[in-house]
Amino acid sequence: MAADLKGRVALVTGANRGIGFALCRRLGQEGMTVVLASRDQSRGEEAAAKLCEEGLNVVARQLDVTDHASVDAAARWLEATYGRLDVLVNNAGIMPNKASVLEATLEDAEAMWQVNALAPWRVCRGFVPLMLQGEWGRIVNVSSEAGRFDRINAVATAYRVSKAALNAYTKSLASELHPKGVLVNAVCPGWVASDMGGPDASRSLEQGSDSIFWAIALEDDGPTGGFYQDGKPMPW
Ligand code: NAP
Fold this sequence. Notes:
Elements: E1 9-12, H1 18-29, E2 33-38, H2 41-53, E3 58-62, H3 68-81, E4 87-90, H4 106-133, E5 137-142, H5 157-177, E6 182-187, H6 205-216, E7 227-229, E8 232-233
Parallel strand pairs: 1-2, 1-4, 2-3, 4-5, 5-6, 6-7
Antiparallel strand pairs: 7-8
């Protein structure tokens, strides 16, 4: 059985397109109040309007995950508007190139580190205090099998390192939040046909977002501190 999510409040980062957008639709269909967060407010509003037209309860909110002031303002707005946060999905991510370990510049490395690894940490620092007030929560860090240690090779090094770091952060956060009613997991959506995954990808946006949804709908005695795809454990 999955947890009843109706009436709960969720926030998804990087949700104006791709997997995050598909996930907002799925969460809205569950009867949740969904905050569709995007770094560009007008792109977020456009995306949210499409889901509202489908009868879903989706609200756009500006949130650049690399900008501390933006995260802080969004957290204060969320507390004032809803007074709670039940589900947080760190979905925003970038892979501007797949440069190899000797080709990748430190600028590449820093950019991917900032968005893929450090930003989820920043976002959690901003939003977890509100989640803890409700003594119930689900946090999903959208990771990638590219960060699996047994798969690491010389291609797309900066992306792989950033996702491996995100996995380590996930485990650490899960350990602190478990006694407080919050389950924290890393999820790989698979190779998905978004702008990042490209048109040849084997999975649809819905398949990718379903993989994430599994970790949101966990019962209270569900797993925490793990790495999953489609509900199946994945090696780190
Ligand atoms: P996508 O289509 O490229 O979408 C990425 C989203 O992240 C966009 O909404 C983008 O916003 C947002 N974003 C980037 N930088 C941001 C920032 N500083 N602040 C806020 N939002 C920001 O990618 P996707 O495929 O949906 O990827 C979603 C997640 O899945 C990522 O974490 C990715 O690493 C992971 N993933 C994807 C695949 C795949 O095959 N697609 C595989 C494994 C893991 P803008 O529109 O403003 O750029």
